[in-house]
Write the structure tokens for this entry.
Amino acid sequence: MLCGYARKYLDDTDHAEEIVQEMFFNFWQKKEKLEISTSLEAYLFRSVRNACLNYLKHLKVREEYRLATNQELLRKEQEIHDHVVGLELQDKIDQVISQLPPERQKIFKMSRFDELKYKEIAEKLNLSVKTVEVQMSKALKFLRLHLAEYLSLVILFILEVLILFLGGE
């Protein structure tokens, strides 16, 4: 009867029998200390019910842990993927920048990497602001032309990073 009662909670005959057996084992070990205020039958059924509920709670915790672990693994895999894509993209950008004429390359790097204003670049290189503007325009046009095939990759990479940043918290 106790196994049938446990099966109603667990829907698994093997686990139901294990729980009843474990309950009897615990009952036997504690028989000297037990104070049963209800009937023995009610006590045994309540013990089986509690053991079943504890088992189900344990299963739920294990499943939640498994899901959390899987999500963490997927997140780490995505981070690695994004890092690799970012490195590949940066390599391609560096290759294209290195193809710029030396003076244009210097102006581009001062603007984009050193974050200098056109006026500051002009002063440092003893050029007119208009020359810096023209060189930057040509550099950007060259980059757009040679990185056009990577534009969709850049957009996807940025979207993935935004989704991870906004949705991952």
Q: What stands out?
A: The chain has a mean pLDDT of 87.
